[in-house]
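Might I ask for a little of your time on a matter of protein folding? The record follows directly beneath this note:
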Amino acid sequence: MGAQGSRVDFKQAVLDLTSKPGKDDEQFWDQAWWPDSVNDIFAMIPGEDIRKLRDESPKNLATLVYKAVEKIQFSRNHPGNIDQKKTINAIRLLTRMIPYMLEDAEWRGYFWSPIPHGDATKPLAAVLLETLSDLLFCPEFTITHANGQKVNDLSTIDSCEYIWEAGVGSGNKPPMVAQHYQNRSEILKLLLTCFSEVIYAPVSDENRLRWICHFTAVTNPHVLPIFTSLLNIVCAYDPVRYGLPYNYLLYNDSREPLVEIALQVLIVCLDKESQPKSDDSGYQDNYFINYLSRIHREEDFDFMLKGITRLLSNPIHSSSSYLPNSTKRVNFHQELLVLLWKCCEFNQKFMFYVLKTSDVLDILVPILYHISDARNDSARVGLIHMGVFIILLLSGERNFGVRLNKPYTAKANINVQAFTGTHADLLILVFHKLITTGNYRLQSLFDCFLTIMVNVSPYMKSLSMVAANKLVHLVEAFSTPWFLFSSPTNPQLVFSLLEVFNNVIQYQFDGNSNLIYTIIRKRNVFYQLSNLSTDAASIAKTLSGRKNKSANRDEMVDQLKSPTTATPPEFPAAGAGPGTASPAAGPSTTAGLAATPALATMTGNVGSWEEKPTAPEVPEEWIATQEWAEAWKSKLPLQTIMRLLQVLVPQVEKICIDKGLTDESEILKFLQHGTLVGLLPVPHPIVIRRYQTNVGTNHWFRIYMWGVIYLRNTQPPIWYDTDVKLFEIQRA
């Protein structure tokens, strides 16, 4: 029967069900036209029909939803003889209808109005959530009973004994049953649909997380086994299995769709308002967060970290495999980054565990791969923000900087210039590439990139020549007069970079002859910065030369591609030059975390997720003044570098003249054995800038998470064509 025929039948059946009191409801669920696939149900019931029902026959819609909930309840109350097809159809029907109800404020309230329940009353939402929670641990529907007996009362089941996968809180490895996986996925999809009230309700609505609050409350008797089931099913998943090439093509992996929806439900349930109404920590009411924050066994941390690392690394291994497409590729790395973030945010012991071992590098490399891979894709700007925030969080701890000194052997296909060096070199090269060739929307992250570099710089033992060149090139790019004068926040970038150099010179001089050599070779960059003219006439001249070109990004890129600082002739050029890159953007405000996006947009067909960064506003008429320029210029921390140049340049020049040197290796050898002890200013204290959570970033993570979930759910397209408020959707 075609979708059109089914559509007519469905409308008639709804009419029959809702308008003829006392008619046998079973007839509705027995109809022959119920399709086998959820996509067919979505096609059979177009959105316009649901809206019509909602607006023209609200009573009928209310009855239909109530009957569907009743059907699911009946299955919960009679687990011994569940009609699986009817139960799944009722679940799918609600998944189809609920987004159109959540669009409307009155209907959002409808779910929370009390209905008769036993001897008392309860909101319909509460009844639905409790019923679905029970069904997640229903023998022969979603779990396998230990002794295979028929169960007629679900209250006799201790769900803690039926956690879906071994791992945190459970050593049992339950049997794998594809049908159970499928039924769990259907229930989880409906739960996720209920939780999506947050994407329709206004930001000011205090109730927008109420479905999540109710589900994750201590009053849900299954809250612990559901939390651990979701966490374990994700962290235990190995998409490659036995490592046989192409083996994933031989069988249908029924587990992956479950892992994907489990991960989405898990991260959504780890959402809370940043200002909790009661308890100080805000973890009191949300038991998903409460349990996550209390995990403490090393073997649990190991299981979680290995699982997240395995899945985050999956695209790397599948893309660098010697046989193309020979290993299964999973696509939920954005959700994994959110999970990793939440694990670190809510459980500090977990974060310290990650930093304690060199496993932190196994997490870092895939993150660098993902953000590098996304750099020119405007649809994945959010992914880059997410990855950079995680690195920023980790960089606030000394151990992270120390671990970066481990030599890097290229496993991942990360698109940076070839180098021999450490993970610190890799970090610098990826950030340099993002700053100089990335999407212009990354401007708001420049400050973040540099903060991370500052945080790790006191521990960088020996930078490669390639990375040293990139660092000096960033100073060159960010210290052009036009760039410095074109925005009130641009000078801050130069301050951060100078702090990186000062930290290395003061704390890691001995192993860093490559960087010292590059500073000497490119000393004019620093001399020009030190001699920058800040009088009103010079500022006006700099800006007037570009008055009508400030919007022209290419102009600035070209200017930065041909650095104005010539290499002094007496030193041979070392390693790779600074390349042709530049901050690929015009004047901007770089406000790091303050500039997290407040709005998101979607582009493309059903869209690709984008965000509009809202940096702190710079008044349109802002113009650089002599007073402003002199104020920051007088504070530039150039003393250490100038002293270094003052001491070393004459020595190096003398060697070149005496020995007629043209070979850089001799100069490097001299610098390796040189010392500046007692010649430099007193070392400054190391300052680490830690990430501070705030309402703005909390809101940004919520937008990012739901934007990803919206786009990833296309089979069926749960929220497509509904009136989403949390972000904008642009269609191609």
User: Anything to note?
Assistant: Residues 275-283, 548-616 have pLDDT under 50 and may be disordered. Residues 358-546+588-611+623-707 form one domain.
